[in-house]
Amino acid sequence: MTHARPGEYGAAFKYVLLLPAVLWVVAFTFAPLIFVIRYSFANYVLGMGITGYVGLQNYADVLASDRFWHSIIVTAIYVAVSVPVEVVLGFIAAWLVNLGAPWARGFRTIIGMPLFTMEVAIGYLGVTLFSSQGGLVTALLGLGGIEVPWLSTPSGGIAAAILLDIWRWTSFVFIIVLAGLSSISSDLYDAAILDARNHWQVMWRLGIPLAWPVTTIAILLRTIECLKVFAIPYALTTGGPGTSTEVFSAMDYLTTVQFFNFGQGSAMGIIFLIIVSALITVFFKQMRKRLG
Predict the structure, then answer these.
(1) Separation of alpha carbons 289 and 283, rounded Å
(2) Could you tell me which of 49, 29, 53, 85 has the C-alpha nearest to residue 273?
(3) In the 8-state DSSP scheme, what is residue 49?
(4) Percent of the chain whose pLDDT exceeds 90
(5) pLDDT for the residue 255
(6) How many other CB atoms are there within 10 angstroms of residue 42's CB atom?
(7) Rounded distance between C-alpha atoms, residue 193 and residue 176, angstroms
(8) In terms of pLDDT, which residue wins out, 44 or 198?
(9) Cα–Cα distance between 258 and 251 in angstroms, integer?
(10) Which helix (H) or strand (E) holds 92?
(11) Among candidates 180, 173, 234, 167, which has minimal Cα distance to 206?
(12) pTM, whole model, 2 decimals?
Protein backbone atom coordinates (compact mmCIF):
# COMPACT_ATOMS: atom_id res chain seq x y z
CA MET A 1 0.00 0.00 0.00
CA THR A 2 1.43 3.35 -1.07
CA HIS A 3 1.09 6.48 0.97
CA ALA A 4 0.96 9.99 -0.44
CA ARG A 5 3.80 12.28 0.53
CA PRO A 6 2.97 15.37 2.61
CA GLY A 7 4.13 17.60 -0.24
CA GLU A 8 1.59 16.06 -2.59
CA TYR A 9 -1.28 17.07 -0.31
CA GLY A 10 0.11 20.62 -0.24
CA ALA A 11 0.28 20.84 -4.03
CA ALA A 12 -3.26 19.51 -4.40
CA PHE A 13 -4.54 21.90 -1.74
CA LYS A 14 -3.10 24.88 -3.64
CA TYR A 15 -5.08 23.91 -6.72
CA VAL A 16 -8.21 23.52 -4.62
CA LEU A 17 -7.76 27.06 -3.30
CA LEU A 18 -7.21 28.40 -6.82
CA LEU A 19 -10.25 26.62 -8.25
CA PRO A 20 -12.91 29.21 -7.19
CA ALA A 21 -10.85 32.05 -8.67
CA VAL A 22 -10.31 30.14 -11.90
CA LEU A 23 -14.00 29.32 -12.20
CA TRP A 24 -14.88 32.97 -11.55
CA VAL A 25 -12.52 34.20 -14.31
CA VAL A 26 -13.79 31.59 -16.76
CA ALA A 27 -17.46 32.28 -15.98
CA PHE A 28 -17.33 36.08 -15.90
CA THR A 29 -14.42 36.93 -18.23
CA PHE A 30 -13.61 34.30 -20.84
CA ALA A 31 -17.12 32.98 -21.42
CA PRO A 32 -18.67 36.45 -21.97
CA LEU A 33 -15.73 37.37 -24.21
CA ILE A 34 -16.38 34.34 -26.41
CA PHE A 35 -20.06 35.30 -26.72
CA VAL A 36 -19.17 38.91 -27.54
CA ILE A 37 -16.75 37.81 -30.28
CA ARG A 38 -19.46 35.56 -31.71
CA TYR A 39 -22.11 38.29 -31.62
CA SER A 40 -19.75 40.77 -33.30
CA PHE A 41 -19.86 38.67 -36.47
CA ALA A 42 -23.63 38.16 -36.37
CA ASN A 43 -26.97 39.85 -36.58
CA TYR A 44 -28.49 39.33 -33.13
CA VAL A 45 -32.17 40.06 -32.50
CA LEU A 46 -33.43 40.27 -28.93
CA GLY A 47 -35.81 37.37 -28.27
CA MET A 48 -34.79 35.53 -31.44
CA GLY A 49 -31.06 35.19 -30.98
CA ILE A 50 -28.66 35.09 -33.91
CA THR A 51 -30.58 35.34 -37.19
CA GLY A 52 -27.54 35.25 -39.44
CA TYR A 53 -23.84 35.96 -39.73
CA VAL A 54 -22.65 39.14 -41.44
CA GLY A 55 -18.90 38.63 -41.38
CA LEU A 56 -16.98 41.86 -40.82
CA GLN A 57 -19.91 44.14 -41.61
CA ASN A 58 -20.43 45.14 -37.97
CA TYR A 59 -16.77 46.09 -37.67
CA ALA A 60 -16.92 48.08 -40.91
CA ASP A 61 -19.99 49.97 -39.72
CA VAL A 62 -18.37 50.79 -36.39
CA LEU A 63 -15.10 51.98 -37.94
CA ALA A 64 -17.07 54.19 -40.33
CA SER A 65 -19.09 55.74 -37.50
CA ASP A 66 -18.20 59.32 -36.58
CA ARG A 67 -19.97 58.87 -33.24
CA PHE A 68 -17.71 55.95 -32.35
CA TRP A 69 -14.51 57.91 -33.01
CA HIS A 70 -15.90 60.96 -31.23
CA SER A 71 -16.53 58.85 -28.12
CA ILE A 72 -12.96 57.53 -28.34
CA ILE A 73 -11.62 61.11 -28.48
CA VAL A 74 -13.77 62.18 -25.52
CA THR A 75 -12.58 59.16 -23.52
CA ALA A 76 -8.95 59.88 -24.43
CA ILE A 77 -9.29 63.50 -23.27
CA TYR A 78 -10.93 62.31 -20.06
CA VAL A 79 -8.09 59.88 -19.33
CA ALA A 80 -5.29 62.24 -20.43
CA VAL A 81 -6.43 64.92 -17.98
CA SER A 82 -7.80 62.88 -15.06
CA VAL A 83 -5.03 60.34 -14.53
CA PRO A 84 -2.00 62.71 -14.52
CA VAL A 85 -3.73 65.15 -12.16
CA GLU A 86 -4.78 62.34 -9.83
CA VAL A 87 -1.26 60.92 -9.79
CA VAL A 88 0.37 64.29 -9.07
CA LEU A 89 -2.10 65.28 -6.35
CA GLY A 90 -2.10 61.80 -4.83
CA PHE A 91 1.71 61.67 -4.74
CA ILE A 92 2.06 65.12 -3.16
CA ALA A 93 -0.59 64.30 -0.55
CA ALA A 94 1.10 60.98 0.25
CA TRP A 95 4.48 62.70 0.54
CA LEU A 96 3.20 65.31 2.98
CA VAL A 97 1.42 62.69 5.10
CA ASN A 98 4.52 60.49 5.10
CA LEU A 99 6.56 63.42 6.45
CA GLY A 100 4.35 63.34 9.54
CA ALA A 101 2.34 66.52 9.08
CA PRO A 102 0.21 67.31 12.17
CA TRP A 103 -3.00 67.12 10.15
CA ALA A 104 -2.09 63.76 8.57
CA ARG A 105 -4.36 61.49 10.64
CA GLY A 106 -7.56 63.42 9.97
CA PHE A 107 -6.56 63.99 6.37
CA ARG A 108 -6.32 60.25 5.70
CA THR A 109 -9.94 59.83 6.74
CA ILE A 110 -11.20 62.82 4.76
CA ILE A 111 -9.36 62.04 1.52
CA GLY A 112 -10.55 58.42 1.58
CA MET A 113 -14.25 59.18 1.92
CA PRO A 114 -15.04 59.78 -1.81
CA LEU A 115 -13.48 56.44 -2.70
CA PHE A 116 -16.29 54.62 -0.89
CA THR A 117 -19.05 56.60 -2.61
CA MET A 118 -20.84 55.18 -5.64
CA GLU A 119 -19.84 56.88 -8.86
CA VAL A 120 -23.44 57.35 -9.98
CA ALA A 121 -24.15 59.16 -6.69
CA ILE A 122 -21.15 61.43 -7.31
CA GLY A 123 -22.45 62.11 -10.81
CA TYR A 124 -25.87 63.17 -9.52
CA LEU A 125 -24.17 65.22 -6.79
CA GLY A 126 -22.30 66.99 -9.57
CA VAL A 127 -25.59 68.00 -11.15
CA THR A 128 -26.44 69.99 -8.02
CA LEU A 129 -22.91 71.36 -7.63
CA PHE A 130 -22.48 72.56 -11.20
CA SER A 131 -26.08 73.53 -11.97
CA SER A 132 -26.53 77.03 -13.39
CA GLN A 133 -29.58 77.38 -11.16
CA GLY A 134 -28.08 77.76 -7.69
CA GLY A 135 -25.28 75.19 -7.94
CA LEU A 136 -22.69 75.55 -5.16
CA VAL A 137 -19.66 75.68 -7.48
CA THR A 138 -21.44 78.06 -9.84
CA ALA A 139 -22.44 80.31 -6.92
CA LEU A 140 -18.92 80.42 -5.47
CA LEU A 141 -17.40 81.28 -8.83
CA GLY A 142 -20.12 83.88 -9.32
CA LEU A 143 -18.90 85.71 -6.22
CA GLY A 144 -15.69 86.40 -8.10
CA GLY A 145 -17.49 87.39 -11.27
CA ILE A 146 -16.64 84.12 -13.01
CA GLU A 147 -19.37 82.47 -15.03
CA VAL A 148 -18.79 78.97 -16.36
CA PRO A 149 -21.57 77.19 -18.30
CA TRP A 150 -20.68 73.83 -16.80
CA LEU A 151 -23.46 71.55 -18.00
CA SER A 152 -24.66 73.43 -21.06
CA THR A 153 -21.46 73.29 -23.14
CA PRO A 154 -19.24 70.38 -24.26
CA SER A 155 -16.09 71.75 -22.63
CA GLY A 156 -17.89 72.62 -19.39
CA GLY A 157 -19.58 69.23 -19.16
CA ILE A 158 -16.40 67.20 -19.65
CA ALA A 159 -14.49 69.52 -17.29
CA ALA A 160 -17.10 69.02 -14.56
CA ALA A 161 -16.96 65.24 -14.99
CA ILE A 162 -13.15 65.29 -14.83
CA LEU A 163 -13.20 67.36 -11.63
CA LEU A 164 -15.55 64.86 -10.00
CA ASP A 165 -13.36 61.97 -11.16
CA ILE A 166 -10.26 63.65 -9.70
CA TRP A 167 -12.08 64.25 -6.41
CA ARG A 168 -13.06 60.58 -6.15
CA TRP A 169 -9.93 58.78 -7.34
CA THR A 170 -7.05 60.91 -6.04
CA SER A 171 -7.39 59.03 -2.74
CA PHE A 172 -6.80 55.74 -4.58
CA VAL A 173 -3.41 56.95 -5.82
CA PHE A 174 -2.72 58.44 -2.39
CA ILE A 175 -3.17 55.08 -0.64
CA ILE A 176 -0.93 53.16 -3.07
CA VAL A 177 1.86 55.76 -3.11
CA LEU A 178 1.76 56.20 0.68
CA ALA A 179 2.34 52.46 1.05
CA GLY A 180 5.39 52.75 -1.21
CA LEU A 181 6.80 55.79 0.57
CA SER A 182 6.29 54.18 3.98
CA SER A 183 8.52 51.28 2.95
CA ILE A 184 11.52 53.57 2.32
CA SER A 185 14.06 53.44 5.13
CA SER A 186 14.21 56.51 7.35
CA ASP A 187 18.01 56.37 7.09
CA LEU A 188 17.74 57.22 3.41
CA TYR A 189 15.58 60.23 4.25
CA ASP A 190 18.06 61.42 6.87
CA ALA A 191 20.96 61.11 4.44
CA ALA A 192 19.10 62.82 1.61
CA ILE A 193 17.97 65.80 3.69
CA LEU A 194 21.62 66.63 4.43
CA ASP A 195 22.31 67.17 0.72
CA ALA A 196 19.05 68.90 -0.11
CA ARG A 197 17.75 72.39 0.56
CA ASN A 198 14.23 71.30 1.46
CA HIS A 199 11.86 68.36 1.53
CA TRP A 200 10.70 69.03 -2.03
CA GLN A 201 14.19 68.30 -3.34
CA VAL A 202 14.21 65.11 -1.27
CA MET A 203 10.92 64.14 -2.86
CA TRP A 204 12.27 64.78 -6.35
CA ARG A 205 15.61 63.05 -5.85
CA LEU A 206 14.63 60.24 -3.49
CA GLY A 207 10.87 59.85 -3.08
CA ILE A 208 9.85 59.75 -6.73
CA PRO A 209 12.60 57.33 -7.91
CA LEU A 210 12.13 54.88 -5.03
CA ALA A 211 8.34 55.05 -5.09
CA TRP A 212 8.16 54.87 -8.89
CA PRO A 213 7.39 51.12 -9.06
CA VAL A 214 4.25 51.46 -6.92
CA THR A 215 3.39 54.74 -8.66
CA THR A 216 3.54 52.85 -11.95
CA ILE A 217 1.00 50.37 -10.60
CA ALA A 218 -1.27 53.25 -9.60
CA ILE A 219 -0.96 54.80 -13.07
CA LEU A 220 -1.73 51.49 -14.77
CA LEU A 221 -4.76 50.69 -12.61
CA ARG A 222 -6.17 54.20 -12.90
CA THR A 223 -5.66 54.28 -16.68
CA ILE A 224 -7.49 50.98 -17.16
CA GLU A 225 -10.32 52.02 -14.84
CA CYS A 226 -10.59 55.48 -16.38
CA LEU A 227 -10.84 54.03 -19.89
CA LYS A 228 -13.95 52.18 -18.69
CA VAL A 229 -15.52 55.29 -17.13
CA PHE A 230 -19.29 55.41 -17.39
CA ALA A 231 -21.27 56.38 -14.31
CA ILE A 232 -19.90 59.85 -13.48
CA PRO A 233 -20.13 61.48 -16.94
CA TYR A 234 -23.36 59.68 -17.83
CA ALA A 235 -25.12 60.62 -14.59
CA LEU A 236 -23.81 64.19 -14.89
CA THR A 237 -24.56 65.04 -18.52
CA THR A 238 -26.09 61.89 -20.12
CA GLY A 239 -23.57 62.48 -22.89
CA GLY A 240 -24.95 65.93 -23.66
CA PRO A 241 -25.30 68.48 -24.97
CA GLY A 242 -26.17 66.09 -27.79
CA THR A 243 -23.38 63.52 -27.79
CA SER A 244 -20.56 66.00 -27.13
CA THR A 245 -19.53 64.50 -23.77
CA GLU A 246 -20.38 60.89 -24.57
CA VAL A 247 -17.60 58.54 -23.49
CA PHE A 248 -17.09 55.16 -25.11
CA SER A 249 -18.77 53.09 -22.40
CA ALA A 250 -21.90 55.23 -22.58
CA MET A 251 -22.10 54.97 -26.36
CA ASP A 252 -21.57 51.21 -26.28
CA TYR A 253 -24.22 50.88 -23.58
CA LEU A 254 -26.76 52.89 -25.58
CA THR A 255 -25.99 51.00 -28.79
CA THR A 256 -26.36 47.59 -27.17
CA VAL A 257 -28.98 48.02 -24.45
CA GLN A 258 -31.14 50.92 -25.60
CA PHE A 259 -31.06 50.38 -29.36
CA PHE A 260 -30.64 46.57 -29.12
CA ASN A 261 -27.88 46.55 -31.74
CA PHE A 262 -25.95 43.71 -30.15
CA GLY A 263 -23.83 43.04 -33.23
CA GLN A 264 -22.38 46.55 -33.50
CA GLY A 265 -22.20 46.90 -29.73
CA SER A 266 -20.11 43.73 -29.52
CA ALA A 267 -17.89 44.87 -32.38
CA MET A 268 -17.33 48.20 -30.59
CA GLY A 269 -16.26 46.34 -27.47
CA ILE A 270 -13.79 44.16 -29.35
CA ILE A 271 -12.25 47.12 -31.19
CA PHE A 272 -11.92 49.05 -27.95
CA LEU A 273 -10.38 46.01 -26.26
CA ILE A 274 -7.76 45.82 -29.02
CA ILE A 275 -6.96 49.54 -28.67
CA VAL A 276 -6.63 49.32 -24.89
CA SER A 277 -4.54 46.13 -25.10
CA ALA A 278 -2.14 47.85 -27.49
CA LEU A 279 -1.83 50.87 -25.17
CA ILE A 280 -1.19 48.68 -22.14
CA THR A 281 1.45 46.69 -24.04
CA VAL A 282 3.29 49.89 -24.98
CA PHE A 283 2.98 51.08 -21.37
CA PHE A 284 4.55 47.90 -20.00
CA LYS A 285 7.42 48.05 -22.50
CA GLN A 286 8.20 51.64 -21.53
CA MET A 287 8.04 50.84 -17.82
CA ARG A 288 10.39 47.87 -18.25
CA LYS A 289 12.90 50.11 -20.01
CA ARG A 290 12.61 52.72 -17.26
CA LEU A 291 12.92 50.20 -14.43
CA GLY A 292 15.93 48.60 -15.95
Answers:
(1) 10
(2) 29
(3) E
(4) 53
(5) 93
(6) 19
(7) 24
(8) 44
(9) 10
(10) helix 66-98
(11) 180
(12) 0.89
